[in-house]
Design brief:
- The chain has helices at 3-16, 22-33, 52-66, 71-75, 98-108, 124-132, 145-157, 217-225, 245-254; strands spanning 77-80, 83-86, 114-118, 137-142, 164-168, 179-184, 230-239, 257-264, 270-277.
- It is of the alpha/beta class and 278 residues long.
- The protein has two domains: 3-67; 78-277, Vaccinia Virus protein VP39 (Rossmann fold).
- The radius of gyration is 21 Å and the shape is elongated.
Length: 278
């Protein structure tokens, strides 16, 4: 079978198994097997014959993907803000919309002297900001030791291990410094919604998804705790659920934040909220 025939067969199988974007998934999996740097390179090789040596491992990967194992876990990597990160079950799979949270900070606080990423997970926000703002002091914390180990591996992958201070903390419990920017993509899904999430999302750590009964338990805590850890006029930037903007903005107002604003994601959903304090 040629590369194109194998690709078409894998696409057809994934489609029948209900995998979203089956062609794209098949391309990534085949490019991974053939050690292609970019999936687009497959298009230059459509007539290449593929033997059992290549087809057998592809069948295994296609089967795993059809069973709901996330593509990023199979490949072992995920792209975020144009950079490649190690991705595995220790941390939340980076979502494309979260890239907009990074861009929001770069727009609102381009000269931030210090940044804290709370609930850093795989570290993609902290690392992306450290790359974009080489003069900034970047710190990142998480309650999960497993997530912190993944974040540190990703920092080392980008030669930033010495620039980013990683530490374990329950939100800001172990934080004593003040910061120009505090950013967080905390769990915001209501507990009752967790069983209804897609099988791919179910592979993320539960602690990275479950936001308590109303989804805002940790967000509400952070809003209150950040008032004493933001420098005067410091920025708090949060990623939130699709229907939580009004409630989060009210929480910010109740805690004496100012310049409170909601920001929309690629799907025109109010996905982010920013505010300043002091």
């Amino acid at each position: 079978m040629t590369t194109l025939e194998v690709l078409n067969a894998a696409t057809s199988y994934l489609d029948k198994q209900g995998v979203e974007s089956p062609r794209l998934n098949a391309e990534y999996l085949l490019a991974h097997i053939l050690d292609k740097k970019k999936r687009i390179d497959l298009y230059m090789d459509f007539e290449r014959p593929l033997g059992e040596k290549e087809r057998a491992p592809l069948r295994d990967l296609v089967k795993r993907r059809s069973e709901g194992i996330p593509l990023q876990h199979i490949l072992g990597t995920a792209e975020f803000c144009g950079h490649l990160f190690t991705c595995d079950p220790r941390g939340l799979i980076p979502r494309p919309e979260t890239e907009q949270l990074v861009k929001l900070i770069l727009k609102c606080s381009p000269d931030a002297a210090s940044i804290l990423d709370v609930g850093t997970g795989s570290g993609v926000i902290a690392i992306s900001l450290a790359i974009a703002l080489p003069a900034s002091k970047v710190s990142a914390c998480d309650l999960s030791p497993a997530a912190l180990s993944l974040a540190q591996e990703n920092a080392a992958r980008h030669q930033l291990g010495a620039r980013i201070a990683f530490f374990q903390s329950d939100l800001l419990a172990a934080v004593s410094d003040t910061f120009a920017v505090i950013v967080a993509n905390l769990p915001y899904i209501p507990s009752s919604d967790i069983p209804n999430l897609s099988r791919e999302v179910q592979n993320d750590p539960l602690s990275a998804l479950d936001g308590g009964p109303d989804g805002l338990v940790l967000v509400e805590r952070l809003i209150a705790e950040a008032t004493s850890r933001l420098a005067p006029g410091g920025l708090l930037a949060l990623e939130i659920g699709h229907d939580q903007a009004e409630r989060v903005m009210a929480l910010l107002a109740a805690n004496n934040y100012r310049d409170i604003a909601a920001h929309r994601d690629y799907q025109d959903i109010q996905r982010f909220v920013s505010a300043r304090h002091g």
